[in-house]
Amino acid sequence: MIRIGLTGGIGSGKSTIGRIFSALGIPLYEADKRAKELNESDIRIKNGLIALLGNEVYMPDGHLNKPYMASQIFTDKALLSQVNALIHPIVFEDFDNWCEQQQSNNADIVVCEAAVMVENGFHSIMDKIIVVTLDRETRIKRTMLRDKSSYEQVESRINNQLSDDEMLKVADFTITPDDHQPVLQNIINIINSLRNKQTKS
Q1: With a threshold of 0.85, does the pTM exceed it?
Q2: What CA–CA distance (Å, rounded) separates 147 from 144?
């Protein structure tokens, strides 16, 4: 089974690309969404976050207190690294378990979509990496519209992410979801290429 890592900067359209893979019958693991679920369901993460950030990190109903957590970790890089070191291995483990389940269902290809894939080493457990790229101004406009954020807020978020050039260093494939690229055909070509190589090997 081939594991594809799908990543790209904010506003690049990687989530849409992920949904297209899913619509074509390729199982999709949404790492960011799953991490949020694990933050509230995995006892190892809950105990670890409380130890690092205090009881206030969870609200009385058990949900993560996201504003509080953000206020703590985004002003303290050392603390952010500790939180990531706690959460990321558990997400990797969850992904491995999910892959085993997909393989038992006879899946030959799976896709893992994650915003922070290269930075946390997630790319190292993938067989192939797809990087979704798009020009900076289009990404900013899309994100402003989606998140109701200001230009400066989005620009700041982009500046804090790994650049496209850095991500492209580990890319096996690139997809550019603009008006000039046949995205669906590009995705089908990638799937067919990987399946042909599997058959030959």
Answers
A1: yes
A2: 5
**Between the CA atoms of 77, 81, 86 and 88, what dihedral angle is there, to the nearest 10 degrees?**
120
Q: What CA–CA distance (Å, rounded) separates 30 from 19?
A: 10
pLDDT in tens, the chain (201 residues): 999 999 999 999 999 999 999 999 999 999 999 999 999 999 999 999 999 999 999 999 999 999 999 889 877 889 988 998 999 999 999 999 999 999 999 999 999 999 889 988 899 999 999 999 999 999 999 999 998 889 998 888 888 788 889 999 999 999 998 777 789 999 999 999 999 987 776
Quickly list DSSP for 1-65: -EEEEEEE-TTS-HHHHHHHHHHTT--EEEHHHHHHHHHHH-HHHHHHHHHHH-GGGB-TTS-B-
Per-residue CA distances from 192 to 17, 26, 130 (Å): 16, 12, 15
Cβ pair 53, 1 in contact under 8 A: no
